Amino acid sequence: MTQTIEVAGLRKRYGDVQAVDGVTFAVEEGEFFGILGPNGAGKTTTLEIVEGLREADEGEVSVLGRSPWPRNPGLLSRVGVQLQASSFFERLTAREQLQTFGSLYGVPAAKADTMLEAVGLADKADVRVEKLSGGQAQRLSIACALVHDPELVFLDEPTAALDPQARRNLWDILREINTEGRTIVLTTHHMDEAEVLCDRVAIMDAGRVLRLGPPAVLVRGLDAPARISVASGVLGLEDARLLPGADGADDDGVSLTISTRDPSAVVAAMAGRDALDGVQIRGATLEDVFLDLTGREFRP
């Protein structure tokens, strides 16, 4: 397939900090590609270099067949960018914001209403941006990035600080954008978001890509046990640890959780003891892969 983005041997240093250290990846045309990593992993710096906002110290970057640095005017109309922190023009309504952004690309003013409808903000067209909720402002930010119909869209943590309902609503919008044929590159801290939306993800830490591939493939490649949970008290802790196929068990007073690589044997044994009240079976997730690669220590 056609490569929309090609990155090879990318490096960027700030003083003593090696923010990006030999990053290499490619994004295919029409792909929904995620870049994941803990704070300080280098994902935002990588994205800014690919967007043409920063100059790399070393390495090669090609976006839609062109180098993004020095700032390439030929790419501006083909790329849309939603930054981690969005700023709007003061005292303008949602419609006026979009008309202003669109005018920079020669887009007719009427396109603003079409974009507001697309992101579910038609009823907020005449509301000033400072009156919008966090989720509404994020949707407007994405509309501004799309108003000129770009082929490639960069989204840097678009659902940060949104409540669950607003996040899910934004997911639907992002899926629709992708099904229209646009290539999307997303950075996020939310593993469930990446697992649901992305065709492939690159997991970064310390400026390097540690693993790259489709979320389901990365999860299948992780040698992690399944976890079977039932209500606490349904089965004794020691009895649970002795079940056929059980690798271990814990009881926090609310749920009894059994770790196993043979869930069918454990469930069968529990059924024989009539101990399946509220049973839940959970396999490995992308979050497990992420923690396995980057560690569990807190990073402020």
UniProtKB/TrEMBL annotation:
GO cellular component, one term: plasma membrane
Record keyword Isomerase present: no
GO molecular function: ATP binding; ATP hydrolysis activity
UniProt-listed InterPro entries: AAA+_ATPase, ABC_transporter-like_ATP-bd, ABC_transporter-like_CS, ABC_transporter_ATP-binding, P-loop_NTPase
Coarse class of the protein's main subcellular location: membrane
Membrane topology: Peripheral membrane protein
Cross-referenced CDD domains: ABC_DR_subfamily_A
Keywords linked to the UniProt accession: Antibiotic resistance, ATP-binding, Cell membrane, Membrane, Nucleotide-binding, Translocase, Transport
Entry superkingdom: Bacteria
Intracellular or extracellular location(s): Cell membrane
GO biological process per UniProt: response to antibiotic
Positions of the ABC transporter domain: 5-231
Pfam families noted in UniProt: ABC_tran
Family: Belongs to the ABC transporter superfamily.
Name assigned to this protein: ATP-binding cassette domain-containing protein
Organism: Actinomadura litoris
